[in-house]
Amino acid sequence: MVISTESRTNVSDLLTHPAELRAQVEIIVSSTPVMDVHTHLFPPEFNELCLAGIDELLTYHYLTAETFRTATISSEKFWDMSKTDQADLVWKTLFVDNTPTSEAARGIVSVLDAFGIDTRAADLKEARAFFNSRKPREHVDRVFDIAHVSGVVMTNDPFDDTEEQLWNSAVEADRRFRSSLRLDSLLNNSDVDPASVRVFLDNWIQRRNPVYMALSLPADFKFPSDNARDRLLREVVLPTAKQHRLALTLMIGVRRGVNPKLREAGDGLGKADVTAVERLCAEYPEVKFLVTFLSRENQHELCVAARKFSNLMPFGCWWFLNNPSIVSEITRERFELLGQRFIPQHSDARVLEQLIYKWKHARRDIAAALWDVYEQLLNSGRAVTAEEISRDVNRLFSGNFNEWIRAEK
Ligand code: FIX
Ligand code: ZN
Q1: Angle between helices 61-70 and 103-114 (to 10 degrees)
Q2: What atom in ligand 1 is closest to the CA of residue 348?
Q3: How many other C-beta atoms are found inside a 10 Å radius of the C-beta of residue 358?
Q4: Residue located nearest, by CA, to atom 9 of ligand 1
Q5: Among 96, 190, 247, 354, which is most exposed with the fewest C-beta within 10 angstroms?
Q6: Cβ-contact 176, 152 below 8 angstroms
Q7: pLDDT in tens, 301-338
């Protein structure tokens, strides 16, 4: 490697040994605070909407889906059981009678381990006693600390009455929980008057100050299209995004209710059409889009689309993609095609403590992908410094997102 004598970098700062490079990447990736750009979490001030503890963790829909594959119980019977009984059954099925190798099951192990709880216990006594003893606000602080999460974006439905009542009664809520305006229920309702919805949304945005507007879309989403969704997008969603300078988050590729008996665990996925996003980006250059696709098959096309449109920011390895083998593949692909201009992961956490495992696991895969990238760079003749690694990781974990939502309102 040639090191120019005119280079402003102190030669001793260069990480020229692979082992040293790996150690630095690991330290920086595991300790840099992350802004979690999409979750379903609520702060304790939102009472029953704030989910936490072992029973909520074990009845997460990722795990109920796995339980139905093994336990000899009908879904009807399962849903009739109390949450505690459901959690007991999930524990026995996936953790006692079987080895918890799936990503979601291993996640529970990571959470228990973080709190020093026996991960091989025969029942949930110890875990329940521990989580029941936690004071909600202190527990949030502890979880954010362990996960090195600086903030989370909630998913807020302006048409949900319970949520609306809690917003109105909530005493000053924890500011680390940022709001986002989720519009699925609007787009599923073809019967609305665009003008009055716009007034309603303007009002909501002014009161709640969301960081972005968001929509999940089915695998067969097309743009343009001759349907009610297209009209609402053009007449309500996109003009509102423009007016309030709010980024629009699109989560594409879900097939809701593939097996409705499984309730939240019954959704599937499908390969979607990335040209819909290309057209949106081309037609609305002044709108910033945050986009994630659910199908592995769409990931390469999304990267290529992002190279063509600077108003397109790929984010996350969503839901069925959130497994080490796939996160690893997608993250490497993104580094190779997009440099550091993407948001590698979001947690999609529904239960507070999931932040611990989702970020622990994601950081490991992101660090491994980064080692490779820097090592390849080193082999090509350019070493990096710890400062550069920090700069890159800060961009990936918060900078890119902050830039996207930085709107002069
Ligand atoms: O639409 C979404 O935001 C999805 O993330 C959820 O609906 C889904 O149930 C989920 O939790 C996936 O992680
Ligand atoms: Zn989600």
Answers
A1: 120
A2: 13
A3: 25
A4: 264
A5: 190
A6: yes
A7: 999 999 999 999 999 999 999 999 999 999 999 999 99
**How far is Cα 149 from Cα 67, in angstroms, rounded to an integer?**
30
Return the structure tokens found at 48: 């029953």
Tokens of 51: 């989910």
Which amino acid, one-letter code, is at 376? Q
Phi, psi of 48 (to 5 degrees): -65, -15
Give the Cα separation of 311 and 314 in Å (integer).
10
Q: Is 319 in the pocket of ligand 1 (CB under 6 A)?
A: yes
By DSSP bridging, strand 247-255 and strand 268-269 are: antiparallel
Asked if pLDDT for residue 409 goes beyond 60, the answer is: no
Residue nearest to atom 13 of ligand 1 (CA): 319
240-278 tens-digit pLDDT: 999 999 999 999 999 999 999 999 999 999 999 999 999
Distance, CA of 408 to CA of 161 (rounded, Å): 30
Cβ 216 under 6 angstroms from ligand 1: yes
Name residue 97's amino acid.
Answer: D
Atom in ligand 1 nearest the alpha carbon of residue 155: 3
Q: How far is the CA of 154 from the centre of ligand 1 (A)?
A: 12
**Which of 408, 378, 269 lies closest to 25 in space, CA to CA?**
378
Q: Which DSSP symbol is given to 35? A: E
Kindly give the number of the ligand 1 atom that is closest to the alpha carbon of 319. Answer: 13
Choose among 276, 279, 273, 344: nearest CA to 313.
Answer: 344
CA dist 325 and 363 (Å) reads 13
Q: Which run of H or of E encompasses 215?
A: strand 212-218
The protein residues having their C-beta less than 5 angstroms from ligand 2 (an ion) are 348
Q: What's the start-to-end Cα distance of the chain, in Å?
A: 48
Which of 400, 399, 393 has its CA nearest to residue 374? 393
pLDDT in tens, 187-234: 888 789 999 999 999 999 999 999 999 999 999 999 999 999 999 999
| Mutational pocket test of ligand 1: of 60, 348, 361, the residue with most ligand atoms within 8 Å of the beta carbon | 348
Ligand nearest to the CA of 39: 2
pTM: 0.97
Q: How many A from CA of 319 to the centre of ligand 1?
A: 7
Whether ligand 1 lies within 6 angstroms of the CB of 320 is answered as no
Please give the structure tokens belonging to residue 118: 């026996």
